Amino acid sequence: MEAGCVDLQRRQLLHGAVVSARWPVRPPWAVPEARFADLCTRCDRCRTACGERLIRRGSGAYPEVDFSRAGCTLCGACLRSCETGALPAVPAPERPWRHGVRVLANCLAARGVVCRSCADACPGGALRFQLRTGGRAVPLVSPSACNGCGACLAPCPVQAVALDFSTTEPGS
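and the corresponding structure tokens:
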């Protein structure tokens, strides 16, 4: 590690956080985590540019996306505000995030209660419901259609939709 670099996993460990495979959710199209920590000056430009107010100060005052109130519209305001290269000036053609979503066992629809709030909020149609025998609709996630925007998280009345980091490769 270069001098002056911040090891975010070490910082989390020293502050009592459990180190896991889950890395902080950076603004869309952020460069890989190790490079992000080197480039980001923690200037808050991306945070103030975000019209949805999704970007907050996280560990070490680095920007993190918080989907607890809304999802990202992928407007690009955060990209245009970044002058350091931590967020590229032009979005990459690939997905903005490497994470997806998964539906947890406490989903109301999976337990027989009519609810489709996550699918209604999903702009890409990544969440849908498949009818099963007896009229029960079970949630299905299409990983290829999910761009990780988080729009489905806040509307769920029982927080049964969660980010899925199983495909995330730290440092990639």
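(Above: one complete record from the training split.) The mean pLDDT is 86.
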